[in-house]
Amino acid sequence: MHVLIVHAHPEPTSFNAALTDVATEMLRQAGHAVEVSDLYRSGFDPVEGPDHYAPRADPHRFAALAEQRQAGQAGTLPSAVTAEIARLERADLVIFQFPVWWHAPPAMLKGWLDRVFVSGRLYTSTKRYDRGHFRGKRALVSVTAGAPAGTFGRGGRGGDLGAILWPLHYSLHYMGFTVLPPALAGGIQGHGYTYQGAEALAGHLEERKRVWAERLHRLDGDVPLRFPGWDDWDAAGRSVAAAATC
Amino acid sequence: MHVLIVHAHPEPTSFNAALTDVATEMLRQAGHAVEVSDLYRSGFDPVEGPDHYAPRADPHRFAALAEQRQAGQAGTLPSAVTAEIARLERADLVIFQFPVWWHAPPAMLKGWLDRVFVSGRLYTSTKRYDRGHFRGKRALVSVTAGAPAGTFGRGGRGGDLGAILWPLHYSLHYMGFTVLPPALAGGIQGHGYTYQGAEALAGHLEERKRVWAERLHRLDGDVPLRFPGWDDWDAAGRSVAAAATC
Description:
Chains A, B: InterPro entries: Flavodoxin_fold, Flavoprotein-like_sf, NAD(P)H_dehydrogenase_qn. Chains A, B: GO terms for molecular function: NAD(P)H dehydrogenase (quinone) activity. Chains A, B: This is NAD(P)H dehydrogenase (Quinone). Chains A, B: Pfam families: Flavodoxin_2. Chains A, B: Belongs to the NAD(P)H dehydrogenase (quinone) family. Two copies of one chain form a homodimer. Chain A is an alpha/beta fold. Chain A has a single domain (about 1-245), classed as Rossmann fold, CATH 3.40.50. The first copy, chain A, has six helices and six strands; from the N terminus they run βαβααβαβαββα. In chain A, strands 1, 2, 3, 4, 5 and 6 form a six-stranded parallel β-sheet that branches. In chain A, helix 1 links the parallel strand 1 (about 1-5) and strand 2 (about 35-40). In chain A, helix 1 runs parallel beside helix 6 (about 195-215). At the A-B interface, helix 2, helix 4 and helix 5 of A face helix 2, helix 4 and helix 5 of B.
């Protein structure tokens, strides 16, 4: 199995970095090929905008999707984007590792979605959702949070984890990925392990190693998250059932 | 009333820009003071990271919240951040205008949250949610989307609008804002009005002017969105009721 870990944290010695290192080591020990895309380290620019496109589909007005489609067809997509697409094409499993900032991924990862999931090249009006480009590939979101894991239940103070991750999960579903249940490392105090001490960190990492080992052993047994698909919608894109989206 | 419009779209002639212009004009005509924070135009950097902090709370390890607290106390927050905080302090109503990209705000706006909602300065463990810093101020999210509005119902192809906006809405609730029901302009074809033609744009703008006029006239009558607060949680931050988060 080829695994891509998309990593989004500014600190190389952060708890997130430690989790990515642990996952890389464990997956390789299990015989898988692992590639890491460290967005901060590579200096990825998360801001979609006109500077990324030349020649322009329309030099007078910037329309992101129109520029993406034209650049994808003309072969003029930014190298940082084509590199990420190549990594996705190689991957059987994509792991997203990041800290929950404001009930969502950091801007660095959000912008990766904005720029890398290229209109036309990776999806069209008919090549989406359960007919998406990455059909057959699995995605797994692994996050850290400052609040204790117990606060992320339904109605909890931290917010329901399913609601926090729904936009990313649904975007992955849109691209055709089979989305596995997420992994949460709570109580990381919201700012990496700097203020947690080496002992607490070691404990967290040991726990995380166990969690990852369990996930790896039962990955094929994981029950993927369920999202509505083409059979659930009428021609106008309305639900034909009482499908819940979160 | 003082209104701040936080605007996040790269194209000055986009449908979003037209909506912000219309809102500015109408609100001023209604006698309100309006300030616009155009994040792309001002070149706001949405990437939270070590480059924004000097001196560092910890020069060896970057921990965002620790650096934010230290900079807030030392008065060394980045000028781009203090300017946004000043605008928020002045505002009675904050409108967020952006296109829905990948079921969420563009990275530019997400990073505005990551950097501007400063730990310590604007929130603490006890000064959050219904005890938040911006208690008494109202927030209103106005978005455009390529898919028709009808696809954003529960279980619809576009995804439930409440689920799409929940992370931003809950973050605003976290900061103490009273969150008003969102405004959606659907069917903008995902890439501004470039491919929609002047006639369709004019129709959309006229419709939007009517919608805004209605919202302005009944703003005080709007029923705010409901989110769990301190009375809904036990000491561990768990829900003491069946509060739904999305």
